[in-house]
Amino acid sequence: MSVYSGMRLSEQYSCEWSQVNLQRRTIELTMTKNGSARTVRLNEKVVAAIESLRRSGQKKTDLVFPSAAKDFDTGEWFQPCLEEAGITGYLREPPVAIRRTARKHGSRRGTL
Predict the structure, then answer these.
(1) 36: helix, coil or strand?
(2) What is the pLDDT of residues 42-51, one digit of tens each?
(3) Band of the pLDDT at 85, cuts 50, 70, 90?
(4) What is the CB-side half-sphere exposure of residue 76 using CA atoms within 13 A?
(5) Cα dist. 36→26, 33, 66, 99, 108 in Å?
(6) Contact, 60 vs 25, CB < 8 A?
C-alpha cells in the first residue's frame, strides 16, 4: 500500500471505509501529519488489495487496515508475509524511504 499510494503508516492504519471510494479509485485523507486534507489516487493493485479486505457487515467507521500495534509497527505481519512468499535477504526500508519511492514513481506516472 505504501509503495503504490505514498500514504504514511499512520494514514493507512487510521483510514476508515468511509474515506475509500473504489469507483473513483481514491482515499480521502482528513487527518494527515501536516494537518491538511488530501486525496490519494489508487492504482489497480491497491484497489484489488482493498477490495479483498471488504467483509459483509462492515461499518463506515471500521478501519480498512486494522492493527493491534499502537505504534504502526509493520513487524507483526510483514516478516511472516515475506517468509510465506519465500523472500529472503529483504532489507527493511524506513517508512520515509518508502514514501519517497512512491512519490518518485507516482510523479513519473502522473498519479502522485
Answers:
(1) coil
(2) 999 889 999 9
(3) confident
(4) 9
(5) 16, 8, 23, 17, 24
(6) no
Q: Is 39 helix (H, G, I), strand (E, B) or coil?
A: strand
**Domains (range + CATH), the chain:** 2-109 (1.10.443.10)
Residue 61 has what pLDDT? Answer: 95
d(CA 74, CA 68): 10
Mean pLDDT of 12-25: 94
All three cell numbers of 104, joined, read: 518518485
The residue to which cell 505504534 is assigned: 71
Q: What is the pTM of this model?
A: 0.67
